């Protein structure tokens, strides 16, 4: 009888222990679920707050200082990237193809555009003066002229403005208004550039672009029209291809607009005026005829910009896509974001 009683008691104890263990396991599972839910809510809250904070910083602080409040001189990582872009600009500035006495074919603007686009105008413009000085010495020197000296800082500043606009607009889903903005700028700068060249007046080359019955004027207008058509063709083809998809093409839209703007303002307009003023005021060499300015300066520049435009756009977009993830990751880590 004792044996039977002990066996029954032992079995009852085992059942009670199993029930207790089952209740403990259930309690632990409930506790884990509660902890996981609380952690998930905290994570979602942090992510939402972080997202709002990032949007606020982009719209308020990162227009001119993309890496604010980080200081460039205290960040080896940023300095390394900046040194890489400076070296790229200097090297690409050395390896150019000379086309005649006044035209050179190269892609050194890639380095300039990257410095302005990524680092913003506050940091990039002072760095550009240093870069321009290094390029002058490493390139074998040359004659300093103020119209040439101001071009690269202005290129940097223009690229920085487009980079800032892109950072503000890149989180928006629609591409339509960005495309409209691109078309307004392209058409506006083409028209204003032509008007500015037409109004440009020098005592030795009195309004060389708008002379009546000039073959050079007609040919210049034809080539500038071809440049405009080529730029518009690139923009419209890509927009129509991705119009019905949700894929963002803002990087292409703003980089292509930036490079077209740089080509019009600083190569076709300012570049043509600069070489004419340089030869007259520094070299003291007057052009043989007014059409000589068009055939020797303007038309070759239009052809050059048409040929290298697509190359510049592709190179800048590729290098931005390579660089931005690393820079953004470094920025997030430094601000304790994940």
From TrEMBL:
Coiled-coil zones: none
Domain of life: Bacteria
Keywords annotated in UniProt: Membrane, Transmembrane, Transmembrane helix
Residues passing through the membrane, by range: 74-97, 109-131, 143-168, 180-200, 220-239, 251-275, 307-327
The keyword Ion transport is assigned to this record: no
Keyword set includes Transmembrane: yes
Protein name, as recorded: Conserved hypothetical membrane protein
Native source species: Mycoplasmoides gallisepticum WI01_2001.043-13-2P
């Amino acid at each position: 009888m004792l044996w039977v009683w002990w066996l029954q008691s032992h079995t009852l104890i085992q059942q009670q222990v199993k029930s207790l263990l089952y209740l403990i396991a259930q309690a632990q599972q409930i506790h884990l679920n509660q902890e996981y839910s609380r952690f998930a809510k905290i994570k979602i809250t942090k992510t939402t707050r972080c997202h709002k904070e990032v949007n606020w910083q982009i719209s308020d602080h990162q227009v001119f200082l993309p890496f604010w409040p980080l200081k460039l001189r205290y960040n080896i990582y940023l300095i390394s990237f900046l040194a890489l872009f400076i070296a790229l600009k200097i090297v690409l500035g050395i390896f150019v193809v000379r086309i005649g006495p006044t035209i050179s074919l190269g892609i050194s603007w890639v380095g300039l555009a990257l410095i302005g686009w990524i680092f913003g105008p506050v940091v990039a413009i002072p760095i550009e003066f240093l870069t321009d000085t290094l390029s002058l010495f490493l390139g074998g020197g040359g004659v300093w002229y103020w119209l040439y000296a101001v071009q690269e800082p202005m290129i940097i500043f223009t690229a920085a403005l487009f980079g800032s606009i892109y950072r503000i607009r890149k989180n928006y889903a629609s591409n339509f208004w960005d495309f409209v903005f691109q078309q307004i700028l392209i058409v506006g700068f083409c028209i204003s550039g032509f008007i500015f060249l037409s109004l440009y007046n020098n005592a030795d080359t009195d309004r060389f672009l708008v002379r009546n019955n000039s073959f050079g004027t007609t040919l210049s207008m034809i080539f500038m029209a071809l440049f405009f058509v080529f730029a518009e063709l690139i923009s419209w083809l890509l927009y129509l291809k991705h119009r019905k998809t949700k894929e963002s093409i803002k990087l292409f839209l703003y980089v292509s607009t930036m490079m077209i703007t740089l080509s019009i303002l600083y190569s076709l307009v300012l570049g043509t005026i600069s070489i004419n003023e340089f030869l007259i005021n520094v070299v003291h060499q007057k052009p043989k005829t007014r059409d000589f300015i068009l055939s020797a300066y303007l038309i070759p520049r239009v052809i050059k910009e048409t040929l290298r435009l697509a190359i510049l756009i592709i190179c800048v977009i590729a290098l931005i896509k390579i660089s931005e993830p690393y820079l953004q990751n470094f920025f997030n880590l430094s601000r304790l974001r994940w």
